[in-house]
Amino acid sequence: MLALRFGDRSHLLDLLKAPIASVQDFFVLTGRAVRNIFRAPHYGDDVVLQMDIIGVGSLGVASITGFFAGAVMALQMSKALATYGQVGKTGTLVSLTLVRELGPVLTAIMVSGRNASGIASELGSMKVTEQIDAMRALGTDPEQKLVTPRLIATATMLPLLTVISDFVGMCGGWIIAQLFLGLPSKLYWTTVWQALSWPDDIIFGLLKPLVFAVVISMVGCYYGLRTSGGTQGVGRSTTQAVVASTILIFLIDLLITKIFVSLGVA
Amino acid sequence: MAAAPSILCFDSVTVLFEGNPVLDAVSFEAFEGESRVIFGAAGSGKTVLLKTALGLIKPDSGRVLAFGRDLSTMRERELFEIRSKMGMLFQESALFDSLNIQQNVAYPLLNQKSIQCPKDQVLPRVEEALEFVELAGTLEKFPSELSGGMRRRAAIARAVVTQPPLILYDSPTAGLDPITAHTIIALLIKERDLSHTTTLVVTHRYQDGNLIANFRYNSEQGSLEPVRNGTGRSAKTIFMVLREGRLVFEGDQHRLEQSTDPYICKFVKPRED
User: Per-residue confidence at B235, pLDDT binned at 50, 70, 90?
Assistant: First the structure.
């Protein structure tokens, strides 16, 4: 009986080994990618190229998401606010929910779907066709050449995309306020502006995308670089990258919000 | 006459994948100017052996010495200098598909610190390497625009552009028609004989090993010619056979053909003298 219990425990430990090793590998890769920001050689061209792919390439999808999020928020909130005769406060709610919550999370999810998968499939294809090995053989550190530029590019572009998405969302809310709620533009934009407090909301609104950017780029790179098993493996890595980054975005969002609420910021 | 210096030495090297040995206590030593032809069934550890020689895979036990330095204890950044003395042709060519052929071939010249090629010398050297593999005129093409044989030749150009003293070829003729396969092996022999490189070739085809052991490049005629008995290269060509990660044979072509081991016999076709 005792032996069986020890056997079960050792079996359980064996099962935990692989996920713990994966988490460790992920943090080691992230640590190296961050360290490489400060180490030569620097691949500026790759950073600019990735900024174009990740940032400019995601501009449309981030704007559309923001627009509809803002419009839907305005519609939903105006209905609730009408109960208290406070339809004029629609701008306040749209502004707060977009800047603090929906803007960062929805933009991150859209960028994750587009870029974590893109990064994982690109690096995964390079891995299975031995291009990563060739890179190492030809004197280049693949983490420095491939991972760090993607980390820098995502960390730069996601906060910018979030700001754009927030603004487009506010415009979506304004269109609803104009067309369906009959709110004067000045009232809407004044409440939108006054709802935001400096610097808390700005820090809150930009810190989240920065953390999400690290998650999206590193999860994409991690799954890409550990790809094995040919084209099927590339597909598997791509799916895993999107699923993992999306779950992590929600998890980290909750964590950051809890910390800020505890600190009395949010 | 002084013995040729050791270029690559495997000292009881074992590599494990998920606890299973893919190289099992492999020991051999390759000397300057030597050609080694490595046979083995799929999954016998041939590619792992080449990648271990290049320091891409760390051995779990044993030592790998390249140019007298122990790769097994070196860090990744330290390995870059040693790797600049080695060229590698990967199994599927491993050309960077986002770069054109010129950028692919120029890659080691621009990225290997110890090469220090002046910028104005990069293009002439790339053109020279591509002319060597008879691919002049493909500078602007992308790998996807080339045939399998042409991709293999472009990858050879990338491997030899820095003129490394040791070149590793991983299945250079796999999946190619006999004519293209012959062209590739002829290029390999040309590179070996013109640059006097040490060469390790992994292959399934006995014809490849036979050509490497018994032919040389005649630079005046620009073609291969058989070596005469007694002065041949065969003495400088060593055959190795891997089986399930173990080195089961190491010796010259004569000994290989005399072997009665059923596994080894599967790789050998008797010569038509």
Answer: low
ipTM value, please give it. 0.87
Using alpha carbons only, give the angle A223, A228, A234 rounded to the nearest 5 degrees: 60
Q: pLDDT tens across B166-203, in order?
A: 999 999 998 888 888 898 899 899 989 988 899 999 99
Show me where the domains of chain B are located: 31-54+83-265
Domain definitions of chain A by residue range = 42-263
Write out residues 88-127 of B within 8 Å (CB-CB) of A.
Answer: 88, 90-92, 94-97, 107-108, 111-113, 115
A141 vs B contacts (CB less than 8 Å): 76-77
Residue A1 has pLDDT above 60, yes or no: no
pLDDT beyond 90 at A24: yes
Position A122 pLDDT exceeds 70: yes
The pLDDT of residue A85 is: 83
Query: Which residues on chain A are in Cβ contact (under 8 Å) with B97?
Result: 129, 131
Mutate to test the interface with A, among B18, B80, B160 (most CBs of A within 10 A): B80
Spatial neighbors of A104 by CB under 8 A, at least 6 apart, are A162, A205, A208, A209, A212, A253
Question: Which CATH fold would you assign to the domain B31-54+83-265?
Answer: Rossmann fold (3.40.50)
Q: What pLDDT does A227 receive?
A: 95
Q: Which two tokens stand for residue B190?
A: 């040309």
Q: Decide if A139 and B77 are in contact by the 8 Å CB cutoff.
A: no
Region B238-243 average pLDDT: 94
CA angle A226, A230, A235 (to 5 degrees): 75
Q: Is residue B266's pLDDT more than 60?
A: yes
- Dist CA A204 CA A105 (whole Å): 12
Contact by Cβ (8 Å): A40, B111 = no
pLDDT at A134: 95
Pairing of strands B237-243, B198-202: unpaired
Is B90's CB within 8 Å of A136's CB? no
Q: Do B76 and A136 touch (CB under 8 A)?
A: yes
* Chain B residues 180-209 with a CB less than 8 Å from chain A: none
pLDDT range class, residue A13, cuts 50, 70, 90: confident
Q: What are the chain B neighbours of A130 within 8 Å (beta carbons)?
A: 90-92, 94
Query: In terms of Cα–Cα distance, which of B87, B233, B247 is closest to B166?
Result: B87
Can you give the pTM of this predicted structure?
A: 0.86
Residues of A in contact with B91 (CB under 8 A): 130
